[in-house]
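Fold this sequence, please.
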Amino acid sequence: MRILRGLPVALLLVVALPHVSAQAVVEWQLTDDAVSLGMNGVSPHVEKTASGDRVWRSDMVPAGTAVSLCNDAGACTSETLTVSGGGVSDYTVAKTTSGLRAYFKRVDPASNTQAVYSAACGDTNCLSFGMATMASTEMQVSKDTKAWGVPDAVRLPDGRIRIYIVESPSLTSSCPEKVASYISTDGVSFTKESGWRLESGYVDTEVLRANDGDWVMIMADGPGCTTASGARKVQQLFVSTSNDGLTWAKPQLLTSTDVGRLDPTGYEVSPNVFRIYYAAGGSNDTFTIKRATMRIADTTKGGDVGVTKTPAAKSKTVTCVKGKTVKKFTATKCPKGWMKK
């Protein structure tokens, strides 16, 4: 992985969060970690485990998806993913009511289609699975359809599974991509939810936190977004919040255009601190996987992350008397045995 030189890529933004006091000023910050993962590919998905970060990504290997286990220092060891029924891409994992399931996109040459499928994981690490089933016939399109896919499966607080996915009803304008969502009680059969979760060209969504009334999502802007001259824009990363996972605030910019960034994934390390993996675009459409840290800092509380402090009271003095003795104390009232003058 090529490490960016110079100052860290970071942009601070003011937003409102449901769990932060109304008087607080909250800033989002994304900073690249000084690690070299040595992984290529796109569409990474990470799961935190006791042994380290397990990172799946689409990497043109026979299975379609490669997987590695990475430690905190960024040293990654390749693992083997065993699939049946053909190659898969855009791999993601969610815990359903019946156990861990893998979700992914698969192309069917016989029907000339691509669709989202899922399968029960064959082991606790989800490094194998057997027969897959289509999640929904509405999540099946021609294999030649552009700006479609990259499913993100999320377990809701009530145990249901929601899949966020990129769709493009029309390709006649800049930023045609929209984010749709599908819901399931068992994590196997999904039904489309009405409306759009995001519009105006956002893609590659990844929900980082899904609590009652407190959701956080990271994403990229779409490859279909163009400049005024019609040139393709450099993709950047954004962050948004929601109270219910359906209606999202306007995404806030996280990165600059020094390099293309897309397909973010991650998890919460500690309150309001997230470990992020993403694909960075290089020359000739080559991509490497990089790691970063996203944090939410409250500057009205000394820049601490996820910690609420009470501002210190201003120092006060009081003049007190005891017999013929007069003395000033740094306090709000006189000590026992003294009277305020």
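The chain has a mean pLDDT of 85. The two ends are 71 Å apart (CA to CA).
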